[in-house]
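User: Some background: our group keeps a shared notebook of sequences we're curious about, and every so often someone picks one and asks for a predicted structure to add to the entry. Today it's my turn. The entry only has the sequence so far, pasted here. Could you supply the structure so I can complete it?
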Amino acid sequence: MGFLWPRMGWRRTGIYYAKRLKRLPGTPYSIACGFACGAAVSFTPFIGLHFVFAAIITLILRGNLLAAAIGTAVGNPWTFPFIWSAIYYFGTRLLGFDAGGQAPKSLEMSTIFNEPGTVLLPMTVGGLPVSVVVWFLFFIPLRRVIANYQYHRRQRRLRRRMNPMTRSVSAMAAEVSMAPSNQPDRPPVELPPDPHIDIPEPGEGGAVSRAANDKG
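Assistant: Of course. Here's the predicted structure to add to the notebook entry:
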C-alpha cells in the first residue's frame, strides 16, 4: 500500500524529495540534468529499465546519478496511466494508426510487450519526442532554483563564519577601550619664545618690540 500511497502523503513526500534534490552535491547543471533525465525516461514504455536508461543518458550528459534516480519517481502508479495514454495517442497520430483502441491501463509490462506492433511501437514513437520536451521543462526551472538555493546557502555559511570573528573583534576592542592606561603622565611641552616678539613684562601695558614695529 505504501507503494501506491506514501505514508507521509504526497505533499510531504514531494517536499522531502525536493529538499533531497536541492541538497545533493554537484553543480546546478549536473543536478538539474540528472533529474530531467530521470523524468524524461519515465515517459517511455520501458518499465523496469527506466533507471538504466536514465543513468546512461545522465552519464553521457555529465549529470548527477542520484538526481536521475529521484527523477524517475515522476513515473509512478499514479502518473503512468496518464503518461501511457498520452504517448500512445501521440504515437498513433504520428504513425497514422487507428487509435480506436484504448491505451493500456495495467502496470504490468506484459500488457505492453505482448503487443509490440500495436501498443509498444506507438508508445515508443510517441514517447521519444515527449521525453525531449519533458527534459527541457524540468531542466530549465530546476537549474535556476538549485543555483539560487546554493547561492543563499553559501551566503548563510559565510555569515555564520563571520559572526564569531565579528564578535571576537568587538570584544577585543571593548577590552582595549576599558583597560586603564599604564603610561605615565607627560609634562606639558613648553614652546621656545619667538625672538621677533617681545613678551611684555607685567605692568608695561603690552608694549611691542621694535622688531615688531619695524615689520608694521
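Suggested note for the entry: The chain has one domain: 9-172. The helical segments are 9-22, 28-41, 50-61, 65-71, 80-95, 109-113, 116-178, 210-215.
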